[in-house]
Amino acid sequence: MASKVLPQALLVIPSNHSLQCPPLKKQLGFPIDSNRRFSLSSNCRSNLMVSRASSNLFSSNFSSIFSFPARNSFVVRSEAEDSSDAPAESVAVVAEEELPVESEAEAEERPPRQQRVKLGDIMGILNKKAVHAAEELRPVPGIRTGDIVQIRLEVPENKRRLSVYKGIVISRQNAGIHTTIRIRRIIAGVGVEIVFPLYSPNIKEIKVVSHRKVRKARLYYLRDKLPRLSTFK
Q1: Options 2.30.30.790, 3.20.20.70, 3.30.70.2190, 2.60.120.10; which CATH number does 143-229 get?
Q2: pLDDT level of residue 56 (50, 70, 90 thresholds)
């Protein structure tokens, strides 16, 4: 390490051949004769020559150590860049050509996404199917509030005999297959209300006797009115 640092320190000394060592009279404090001065000057020149030679050797060693890998790295980089130019372009072109084909194939292979069916939708579908099946067995006329209807009902407890009920429809509650109607009539001066499921299999026939126009959807106010308003022919 010291051998490498010493030439760097010696490089600071100027390289002029005519330069002589500075007088040592002031430094040493006593006079020096010419022979000794000449010997000192020769010694200084020899030191200068040694320092110059050592600096040249050091510079040559330094350049040989540090410049050779730099040249090799530069050559390697240039070769890598030259060799990778053409394949990079070809790879890019191939990738651009293959991307649309893959996207089209994926679009064709993917099946259409099915929408999620909620529980309420399922119940609605089942109600529609049940209503459609019940209407095929027995057609149901359009019944509105205020109509006078006649219903033929089969009673299982009465040896399946048919009973006829007639009255005014005071309300209708729509609930799919569970739709019901409420009928009111006067029996022995007393108002009687009966609820019938509209799609019940025990109902064999529903007949609309007459239609009446009313303003309200539910005629519950007839309960407080006179019985003659709830009678019909």
Answers
A1: 2.30.30.790
A2: low
